[in-house]
Amino acid sequence: MIDPLHATDIMAAWTRDEHLRFDIAFALKNVTIPGFRKALKEEDRIAIAATILEHLKLCRWEFSKPPERVQ
Fold it and tell me: Which of 10, 11, 25, 65 could disulfide-link to 45, CB 3.0 to 4.6 Å?
């Protein structure tokens, strides 16, 4: 399990693709699959997110995110 105090340090070292994969996987928590009784496991969501990201890259999508706001 990831220590919440160090989670931001780990995320800061992620690549753009890792951040995007995390964001897609996080969004998949809200997906209900008809006929599927259980929610997706975290590993499944990450695998689906990785597949989506790879497909979008094959389609030549480019991704960027504005810099984080410093408070």
Answer: 25
